[in-house]
Amino acid sequence: MGVLISNDAELDTLISDRDIEAAVAATLAHEGVERPVEVSVSFVDDEEMRGLNRTWRQIDAPTDVLSFECDSPFDEDIPQGESVELGDVILAPGVIAHQAPEFDATPAEECRLMLVHGLLHLLGYDHLDDEEAAAMEAREEEILRALASERGEDPGTVRIGPTTRHHGER
C-alpha cells in the first residue's frame, strides 16, 4: 500500500501521517482489498475546496471531503498483483474542524471519519438513498472502532453522525 500525503498549504491536518496511513490500511483491510494499492490524500484550504466543489459538483461552497476514483482494486481486467491507483481523497481541515462540534466530535475524530468516508467512496460506496447511507455509515463506524482499538482507545466511545445527508443534499 502506498499513501501519498499532500499538504502544500502547510495546514493543520488534524491527524498525523501515521493516523492517515492506519486509516487507509484499516479501510482496505475491512473491504478485503488484497492487491497493492496507491492512494493520495490531500489537505486543502477552504477556498481551494470551494473551487473543487464548484468545478466537480456545481456547488459553490466548501465541503469537508471530496473523492475522485481512478481504478477499482476489484477490477478483474487488471492483472492480480499489479498495483492500482485507487484515487484521491481531498480533505478541508478548516471545514472539518468547524463542523466537528456540530457532531459532538473532536476535529481529529471528525477528520478520521471524513478520511474513511472518502476512502469508502473510492471503493464504491455511496449514500444516494437511505439504505446506502445506512450501510456506509455502519461500515464507517466498524472501521473507526477498529482504529480506536489499534490506538489503545475504547472502541465503545466511537460515535458517528449521520455522516451523510440523504437524497443528494451533500
Annotation keywords:
alpha/beta; globular; 170 residues; 5 helices; 4-stranded mixed sheet
Strand order of the largest sheet: 1-2-4-3
Number of helices: 5
> Given the helix and strand composition, which structural class is it?
alpha/beta
Radius of gyration: 15 Å
Number of strands: 4
* Helical proportion, percent range: 40-55%
H-E string: EHEHEEHHH
The largest β sheet comes out as: 4 strands, mixed
Overall mean confidence score, pLDDT: 92
Low-confidence regions: 166-170
Describe the global form. globular
Percent strand equals 5-15%
**Ends distance:** 30 Å
Describe how the helices and strands are arranged.
Blueprint: E1 2-6, H1 17-30, E2 37-43, H2 46-57, E3 65-69, E4 84-91, H3 93-99, H4 107-122, H5 130-150
Parallel strand pairs: 1-2, 2-4
Antiparallel strand pairs: 3-4
Helix pairs in contact: 1-4, 1-5, 3-4, 4-5
